[in-house]
Structures are given as structure tokens and as C-alpha cells.
Amino acid sequence: MRSGDAERKKAYAARPDEPVASFRLVSTIMPQGSGKQPYTYKVALGVALLLTVLTAALGALPVAIMVAAFSIPIVYILYLYDVNLWEDEPIPVVAAAFVLTGVLAAVFTWIWSDKIALSLDTIGGNDAGPAGRDLLILLLLVPVVSELIRQIGPLYLASRPRYDDLMDGFTFGVVAGVGYACFETLVLHWGWISGGFAGPGSSAGTWISIVLLHGFIKPLIYGSATGLAGAEFSGLGEGYDGFTPRWVFAVIQAIVINALFQGGVYLLGFVGGHGSTVGAILGVVWGLLLLGALIIRVRTVLHKGLLEAALESAARGGSNHASGELAFCSRCEMPLLPHSDFCSACGNSVRSVPKSARGVAAQAVAGGGVGGYDATTRETQA
To answer: Contact, 282 vs 290, CB < 8 A?
Structure first.
């Protein structure tokens, strides 16, 4: 109220020291861990990126593709374990959203890339120019079917009472998106994986551009777009919102983004001829532009969702997630005021931390001890 920034656009709810409209990857797709250990995930992604670039530059294409395909999924799954997002059930949750989506992605990608058979190598252009049949496949068939596949796991999980929170729906969507991208990349570039080492050569720039596009940019685009749809399905308040017009719009939005990505990379692949480094680099630039716009969109939706959830909770008499003497902010470690939804010290949203951390207070009261809080629990909390 004092600043005139009524919507808190300068203080992202999951990371108050960052503005909402900013390209901050970790605090966007990993909001539960962004306040406490952001550099852990940044370093992991940086190492994976460096290793991918080096192996591609040296012509170790099988290694480069494998590292690129699995880097973001592995980092994201480790993040889920690290923040203990769903307490004692991480394995079935991750398996349902990642493995199931990955298997369906591999089958569908094999069908459209091999059986339907595009008239060109999907990693570059050819000298004949764009084909109308290929554009129809990449602009209609692939975006629609792939997004519907990515919705299966998140919708099933978000419809369960234990996982109906907005942050849950978003996280399920990201898991499904990066899982789909991983297996799609393996199928599309199986020739590189089985072809052995190529050795250093003049095509190093093309190789690097392709592994960056399909190993890092594509999974982030897929995950963010599907995550938005998952968040709209979960919605705010008690229970999941379901198949609302907002969810339909989010799914259509994800399909359009997918079509823009696939079609743009395909058309840019013709610049400079088949396998041109210029076309591959332009594809990376196009992917980064789409990803930048999508990241800001994700941050806006999550930020607004967290603020609305806090207001709704306050209107019902206060949150049950935090009691003053028993719960602490995961970011600045200051005590939370009774029934608070935001930290009074740093402004971090209580709903952007794992449910296990939010529910410590209620568990402690039920367990007894001094003031309903025994020494063992207090030590563990600290």
C-alpha cells in the first residue's frame, strides 16, 4: 500500500527479492526450492550445460544427446526429492507423471517421425524447401496429440485430494513436460546415439545448437506450458477446479506454443540449406524467445495464484499451514506469525514451500511435548 504496487509486481511471491517480470529459471520451475538452496540447482544445470556443449563440440554425439536429454529431468527429479514435496510418496508420483508420459511420448514420436515419415531430417532443413504435409504434421498433429498426452498424468494426480493444490498441479505439468521432451529427443536423434563418435569437425556449431535446443530449451518450453495447464486444473481453494474454461484456455495456449516452436524450428532449418549452422542457431534464438515469454507468463500466473490463495485463506479466518512459534520461513528462517500465509520478514509465500514444512505445526501439537512441541521436533525443525 505504501509503495503503490498493489499487485506486488516487484516482489515475486515465491522469491520476494525478484520482480515478477524477469527471466529467472530456478524460481519459476522450482519455486519450492528457490528460497533456500537456489544455487544447488543453478550449479547442477550449469555443469550439465557445459558438459553437453563440450561433448557436442568434440563430436561425441551419443554422449551429448544422452546428457542433453536427461539433464533437466534428472535435476528436476532430484529437486522433488530434495524439497520432499509429497512427503512419503515421491516414487509413485514421479513414476506416474514422468515414466508414463515418457513411454507414450516415445511411441507417438516414433509413429509421426518414422511411420508417418516426415520428408526431411527433423534436425535441419533440405534444399527442396518447406513441404505442406510436414507443416500440417508439425503445426497440428504433433502439438495437439503431444499436449493431450502430457495432460494425462497431471490430471490424474491433481484430481486426487492430497495433490489438488495449485503448486501441485503446476509441478505435475512440469514433470510431464520434461519427461515428454526427454523421450522425444531420444527417438528423434536415435541415429546420433547409435552412430558412434563423429569426432571434431566443421559441423560442431550445428551439433551444439541442436543439443542445446532439444536438450535444454525444448523441455523447459514443454514443461512450462503444460505446467500452466496443470495449475489451472488444480486452481485455488479447497479441491481441484477441474475442466474449467481457464483450463481449456491453458491447454490451447500450450498447443499454440508447441506449434510455434515446432513450426518455427522447422522453417528456420531451411535458412542456409540442409544442416546449416545458421539455421540451427536461428532455431535456438527462436526457442529462447518463446521460452522467455513463457517464463514471464508462468511467473505471472503463479504469483497471482499465491496472492489470491492468501486472500482467500485470510477471508476464511487464516491459514492452517503456520502457527507462530512452531513454523519458520524456509527462505529467511524467521518465525512465521500465527496463521500467516506470507513471511512478515521477507514476504515469501508459505504456500510456495513443501506441504511437509507447512504442516509441521499441526503434527507437533498432536505429538505433545512442551507447549505441544517436544524437544526432538524442535531440533528437527531448526
So the answer is: no
Predicted pLDDT at 344: 72
Residues 339, 319: Cα–Cα separation, whole Å: 5
Q: How confident is the model at residue 314 (pLDDT cuts 50, 70, 90)?
A: low
Instruction: Please tell me the distance from the alpha carbon of residue 369 to that of residue 306, in angstroms, as a whole number.
Output: 33
d(CA 234, CA 250): 12
For residue 321 the three cell numbers come to: 499451514
Q: Of 87, 13, 81, which is closest to residue 360 (Cα–Cα)?
A: 87
Query: What are 370-381's pLDDT values in tens digits?
Result: 333 343 333 333
Question: pTM higher than 0.90, yes or no?
Answer: no
Per residue in 229-246, is it b (16+ CB within 10 Å) or e — as a string? Answer: bbbbbbbbeeebbeeeeb
Ramachandran sector of residue 274 (left: φ over 0; alpha: ψ -120 to 50; beta: rest): beta
Q: How many CB atoms lie within 10 A of CB 107?
A: 12
Distance CA 358, CA 65 (A): 39
DSSP assignments along 172-228, one per residue: HHHHHHHHHHHHHHHHHTHHHHHS----S-TTHHHHHHHHHIIIIIHHHHHHHHHHH
CB-facing half-sphere around the CA of 318: CA atoms within 13 A:
9
Task: Tell me the C-alpha distance between 233 and 251, whole Å.
Answer: 10
Grid coordinates standing for 279?
A: 539455421
Residues in a beta bridge with 328: 335
Residue whose C-alpha cell reads 520461513 in the numeric block: 329
